[in-house]
Amino acid sequence: MFSGWLTAAVFLPMVGALLIATVVRGDRNVRYFAGAVSLAELALSIVIFIKFDLGNSAFQLVDKAENWIPFESFRVQYFLGVDGLSAPLVLLTGLLGMAAVFASWGIKHRVREYFVWLLLLQTAVMGVFVSLDFLLFFIFWELELLPMFFLISIWGSGRREYSAMKFLIFTFLGSAFMLVGILALFFSTGTFDMTELPDKIAAARVAGELIVPVGMIFTLLIIAFAVKLPVWPLHTWLPDAHTDAPTAVSVMLAGVLLKMGGYGMIRISAGMFPEVIVDAAFAIGLFGVINVLYGALVTLRQTDLKRLIAFSSISHMGFVLIGISSVAGVAGVVSPVGLSGAALQMFTHGTIAGLMFLVVGLMYEKAHTRYIPDLGGLATRMPVIAAVFLLTGLASLGLPGTSGFVSEILVFLGAFPVYSWLTGAAAFGIVITAGYILWMIQRTLFGPAKERFDSIRDATVLEMVPLLVLVVAIIAVGIYPAFISDAFTLGVDPIVQAIQAAQDQTLLVLR
Amino acid sequence: MTSHDIYLLSPEISVAALAVIVLLLDLVVVRKGYLAAIAIIGLAVPLGLSLSLWFSGLDGAASVDNDGILATTLAVDKFSLYFKFLLLAMTAIVLLVSSDYVRRFARFQGEYYALILFALSGMMLLSSTTELITLYIALELTALPIAALAAFLRDGRSSESGLKFLILSGVSSALLLYGMVLVYGFTGTTVLSEIATRIAEIPLSGEEPFGAYALALGSILIIVGFGFKITAFPFQMWAPDVYEGAPTPVTAFLSVASKAAGFSVVLRVFYEAFPLDALSIEWSALFAILAALSMSVGNLVAIPQTNIKRMLAYSTVAHAGYIMVGLAAAASRTASDQPAFGPSGVLFYLGGYALMNLAAFSAVIAISNRIESDRIQDFAGMGRRAPFPAAVLAFAMVSLTGVPPTVGFMAKIYIFGSAVNSDLAWLAVVGGINSVVSAYYYIRVIKVMYLSEPVSDEPVSSGLTVRLAMLATILGVLILGIYPRPLLEFARSAAEILF
After folding, report:
1. A interface residues, B as partner, C-beta within 8 Å
2. How far is B316 from chain A (nearest CA, A)?
3. Which of A135, A161, A179 sits opposite B432 (nearest CB)?
4. What is the complex's ipTM, to 2 decimals?
5. CA atoms A187, A189, A194, A197: torsion sign
6. What is the residue extent of each domain of chain B?
7. What is the per-residue pLDDT for B442?
8. What pTM does this model have?
9. Which of A72, A183, A211 sits opposite B492 (nearest CB)?
10. What Cα–Cα distance (Å) separates residue B45 from each residue in A117, B14, B19?
């Protein structure tokens, strides 16, 4: 089976990067070429999303080459495919990849290398979302390390080398655990195929063939995802990386890289270990609440705009955890609402945080500061940027009509019946969010206009393109969420059913 | 000695003959550059002979029919031939990178090439031996030329390096010999396969307490002896000084070829003389602990190093640890119904390691030859001053860290996989954490080359032969990183002999 669409989507940026590294000459040409590649990639991801059949819960657009690496019985395949869970994330990657390239127009230093790494990063992320072979998934997961390291350490600001190394070490440590988990799964079941693994793990569990206790494998894997999401207390790399990264890299980091963690948790931790995830659900929910509240409280104290958004990302990613925790179910009945809310939260946060970093990047470029007390009164000087910033702020705090509202309400609807206390506590996070968002907007955009900002200009047309695309995405999902959430519902359905089946089994045993 | 015996030994004989030819030609050839060319091209002869041996009646796990005078001392099987191919390839690369470097000792170029070839013949012989005395002789044949080579620069550091190597390899040989004597005294034979049958025959119970202890002591002394050769903890302390002082191509040779030969013997001795059922559990635990310590010590001590050769020395200690993970896995039973692939993991890792380490050393030679410094901080800005060597070194570092798409990643997966499969998941976790630690110092080299400001903007050029070596090794690293199948199948068919 080989439809080719996904292979094209994964490797188009890489081919573009190779051409930039070898053929394309001149900074200007490199920029235009990278822009063209990213637009083609966006088009490709839109086509994939449209071609994706919402009536079919199987993996689609499959590209499969068996026996890519045959280590004796170690059969590694080249296996790509999308289902409802990954198709929207492919679209998200295409959107933010385009936004990131256009946000990099102002890069003047080592332009060629910059776009090579940025495009390679996009290949890695796209690969993670569409890989259906566990080892291939892991390869893409690791492939993202070096581009990020270089992008932060060469084009970053502040303590960039420290932050880049911190990012690298944290992520690499997580993936070291994940590798052992993957290998343990392989030797227990004899396959890396992610479509076969759920059944085979269940079978191996019944037959007692797991060579490492299932809880251990689950833990090894979830650590890697928790670092990436990031879950408190493994989050400390994120504010540093965000603060010191160039704008486009922050966009990619907040927009899609964090989603790799959430995607892994839903696809692998929940999808492959239906029994364990139920046992772990309370802990996951608890960490979710800590993330939400801790992230929100720390955000209140931030004075650097990028750091502020970084901490608010931690807070928002907590909702993904709370959504996942809802799979514990009430009285043995599991509802898919919480899980699809968690998935939708990933998409919406991707667009919202991505857009926020874009706007902050523009403000920084024009006002030359991200220090909040120095800003103020920007609304009169740059009305378009201010309007977009206001809109994302409102979406971020979950205003109805924006995508943030839809995903958060789904998470609450799903999780409240299960863990009402936890969810209630998390709802308090929304209040704090409203506080810091409004306070931030008030301090930066409004208030008396400052003289030193008299000469700054609003966004140029080129700068507006990515802004508008993301604004459309946010509002479209806010008004007509089914456009994305139908896919997610389709994607989480098999996972929820498996968990339900596992629940029924336990209840049966208890009786 | 029949002609068949000579045919079996022909690769080693031709390498030794090549060494003599180079020595003799040195007397008449004026332009010494030709000597390197002759040595490299001459390697085609042993390569061709090894190929013909590989295809002559080797089907499956069988070895070439050998009932001559060498019958019990030598085995020409796929396992030994794998190592011969590997060693020949490594030597070719080392000779390629040497040709620029040898100008430093203009008067002794012929001797330099000849000594490398002599050491090579010893290593090739080592991979074939199946008897303790032959093994010892082959070991000495490799150690003595290397000691001379290490001291070749004839300055203080280099002499220290040569002397240290000589003394410590003497000590390790003595320990090894003592272990062999104990094993011989207990079993009455020096042939590996016979040792195994004797051990199986004699009860290892309390009736003969002395015998059992003597055997245990003997085999532990053998491990210690090999521990020196493969730079495993706690026998690694000679490596940094020797590596730093020796001429860099010799360091490269030592770090890959010597290690490969050492592991070939360890695998053979422990598979043939002390098989799984006799003493398996202790072996696995012992190797596992040594592996964990080698990795951790090697990686932690590599972090503060400022000299790139010393850093690479400690990194070889760490990699010896990774390879020993495969040994530990090979020595234990598998936890699942998958076949054990510890041995083929070791072979594959050695092949991949040779490629990435030689790539790193070639690039280091290309750069440090021109800037006359081995300090990591002097590599600042090489990304601009020497784009190609810097890129090669960067990829080699990435591969040594074990990040895709490089052969180091595939090798690591394979070797950690064998550990998980053998119920040694904890060892794989230790290995994983160690690769994170190693990332810190490997990536630092990349950081210095691409992020630090250069001291001058003068481009650093490199010779044609060094560039050729870099190209060959780095292509190997990348191609096998994406499509490792050829080397994997090769390693697998070579490892079959051990089952």
Report:
1. 68-74, 135, 139, 142-143, 145-146, 149-150, 153-154, 161, 165, 168-169, 172-173, 176-177, 179-180, 183-184, 186-188, 190, 209, 211-212, 216, 220
2. 20
3. A179
4. 0.84
5. negative
6. 275-499
7. 92
8. 0.89
9. A72
10. 45, 7, 12
